[in-house]
Write a structure and sequence with these properties.
The complex is a heterodimer. Chain A is an alpha/beta fold. Chain A is 31% helix and 27% strand. In chain B, 51% of the residues lie in helices and 16% in strands. Classes of the chains: A alpha/beta, B alpha+beta.
């Protein structure tokens, strides 16, 4: 595998259900992601985007085919091995999924403290720094309920990036945002990813942000239909 | 508090922050735990009071051994013992002295209410069988129908009791006779009577004409210094030809009485079940609070799972919540429980009180059962599948 390749997916098949209800969701999917790249994964609902994201993100067991992530083969990996790998990833969810009882700083600290042995002051310092980078230094002590949708998603970005992950997996991070907020979040993700050498795989339906991706993968009925650079 | 827990756990006190985020729900949860604590405290207080009240009359006497009828599970229960066994026991070289003890309940019509006095008939010529406080006044019982009265008996006023002296005795009618109390001693209301009275064996037989001097309820024996009680008991068993009689040390008799009251009498069993129900109520309340909390935060937990947090982290959060609930629920439970026991003790004159052992025991029990509830509640975390977040 090319040393510059962070994720290498080869001949990936995946099924849901069992018996007669068993349905194949992915068919021989193959692609690779290089370090520092920003890739958009597109496709209609049910095309298998989320399945790819959860398999690459170590959230599901690989059934057939190969997924190499950070030089680890995920097919046959133990649960403990998957959990350990997940600690090296950053996740951004459509619903931001911030903890309602934790302030912005505390939410971001969770992205650091997942690695045992990080002292509390250091985690707090890293969280404050990350919040500053996403322009929310003045909202550090706010609970999510007191933040706007865009601000919450920026906190989620800070949480995903604060631990310097090798790979950020983002699922429709702009779906609930207006045009300006969406552009702001994606630019932020791309800018910070580039500065830190982080690879980003972003699932989206949002055509507004496609021109910001380095590469667009399109899934159709569980197969890679197109692999292209954005137009214009 | 948040900083203290943070320093303690070395991580964000998520459990504490989650619980205190919704203050109304937190207060309701604490009230529930406190309620369970109060239930346990009250039941334990009553059980303790029963124990103290059961053993109280044993503190009036000084004896090494006690012979009772086979069915005499308690001091005031069971059949009689033939006096001939007292004489037989006295034949043992290590038995220094012996006395018959009569027990019965007499009513006292106080006008506004009737009270019942557990009455002991003793030989006034043998003060060595009574504790020093009572022994000092035992000579007063030589007079027919004289009595020593429990100054803490339910229904007798403090001032009235304090005024009982040989110069200012208190007379009252009972069992068709006029009994006169010349002195008082410290007893207290129990579950079998409102207080105690000591009379001579002769006065006792006057109060209970159906009883005879040849059949006391128990026989108390004093051993010579240095005698081995177990060896004397073994010899007495061989010497006394009635195998149904219970021959045991006086201290053992008290403990047997206590066990009987707690495990075989309905009151003891009911109070025991009361404690169990309190514990179960607490368990269910804490479980309900924690499992609801887990269910409410399933999405956040799934997010943490996705980020790479393992099962120990989640168990830590839920146990943290359980300990916070246990600790903070205990304090108001202790305050309310102590108040209720104090008020109940004053009303009933039962020895109801919060003891350090009770408080520590319930505190540790609360933490233990809260943790147990928390551990059970973590099973709901299995439903937090991070793959469902996408």
């Amino acid at each position: 595998m090319d040393p510059d390749t962070l994720v290498d997916v080869r001949g990936l098949n995946h099924w849901f259900g069992s018996g007669e209800a068993r349905k194949q969701a992915l068919f021989e999917v193959s692609f690779s992601l290089t370090r520092g790249s920003f890739t958009a994964l597109m496709g209609p609902s049910g095309s298998g985007k989320t399945t790819v994201l959860t398999l690459v993100g170590c959230l599901r067991a690989v059934q057939d085919g190969s997924v190499r992530l950070l030089d680890h083969e995920l097919n046959g990996a133990t649960e403990a091995g998957l959990v350990a790998l997940r600690q090296r990833l950053g996740f951004i969810f459509q619903g931001h999924n911030l903890h309602e009882s934790l302030t912005a700083t505390q939410n971001v600290m969770m992205g650091v403290q997942v690695r045992r042995g990080v002292p509390d002051p250091l985690a707090r310092q890293a969280a404050s720094h990350a919040l500053g980078l996403v322009g929310l230094a003045d909202r550090a002590g706010y609970l999510p309920a007191n933040l706007s949708g865009g601000q919450k998603q920026r906190v989620a970005v800070a949480r995903a990036l604060v631990g310097n992950p090798a790979l950020v997996l983002a699922d429709e991070p702009t779906a609930a945002l207006d045009k300006d907020s969406a552009a702001e979040v994606v630019d932020l993700l791309k800018r910070m990813g580039r500065a830190r050498g982080t690879t980003t795989l972003l699932v989206t339906h949002d055509n507004r942000i496609l021109d910001r991706a380095d590469r667009i993968l399109t899934l159709q009925d569980g197969r890679i239909a197109r692999d292209e650079a954005p137009r214009g | 508090m948040s900083r203290l827990l943070q320093a303690l756990f070395g991580r964000l006190p998520i459990g504490w922050l989650q619980l205190t985020h919704n203050r109304t729900r937190f207060a309701a949860a604490l009230a529930g735990v406190a309620f369970a604590n109060v239930l346990v405290f009250v039941q334990l207080g009553i059980m303790n009071a029963m124990g103290t009240a059961t053993l109280k009359p044993y503190t009036f006497f000084q004896a090494d051994l006690m012979i009772s009828a086979g069915d005499a599970n308690a001091l005031s229960e069971g059949g009689n013992v033939a006096r001939q066994w007292l004489l037989q026991a006295m034949a043992d070289p290590d038995v220094a002295d012996g006395v018959g003890l009569f027990v019965g309940n007499v009513p006292w019509d106080r006008g506004d209410k009737d009270i019942s006095l557990t009455t002991f008939g003793v030989d006034p010529a043998k003060p060595g069988f009574m504790v020093p406080d009572i022994a000092a006044d035992l000579g007063l019982l030589e007079v027919q129908d004289a009595a020593l009265l429990d100054r803490l008996a339910r229904g007798i006023g403090k001032e009235e009791a304090a005024a009982i002296r040989p110069q200012t005795p208190l007379s009252f009618e009972t069992q068709g006779r006029t009994v006169t109390a010349y002195a008082s001693f410290t007893g207290g209301g129990g579950f079998g009577g409102d207080g105690y009275m000591l009379v001579s064996d002769q006065t006792f037989l006057s109060l209970f004409p159906a009883r005879t001097s040849t059949a006391p309820d128990h026989i108390l024996l004093a051993l010579r210094p240095g005698a081995a009680p177990e060896a004397v008991i073994a010899r007495l068993r061989a010497l006394i030809s009635d195998p149904s009689l219970r021959i045991r040390s006086f201290a053992e008799a008290g403990q047997e009485d206590l066990r009987y009251q707690q495990t075989r009498r309905p009151t003891g069993i009911i109070f025991g079940f009361g404690v169990l129900i309190g514990v179960l109520v607490g368990l269910v309340i804490v479980y309900q609070v924690l499992s609801t909390d887990v269910a409410d935060h399933l999405r956040e937990y799934a997010t943490f799972k996705a980020m790479g947090y393992g099962p120990r982290f989640f168990l830590g959060i839920v146990l943290e919540e359980a300990l916070v609930l246990g600790l903070f629920g205990f304090v108001p439970g202790l305050i309310v429980g102590t108040t209720i026991l104090t008020v109940m003790g004053k009303i009933t004159t039962l020895p109801l009180a919060m003891t350090p052992a009770m408080a520590i025991g319930v505190f540790l029990g609360t933490l233990l059962f809260s943790s147990l509830s928390g551990t059970i509640a973590t099973r709901r975390l299995a439903a937090a599948d991070p793959a469902d977040l996408f």
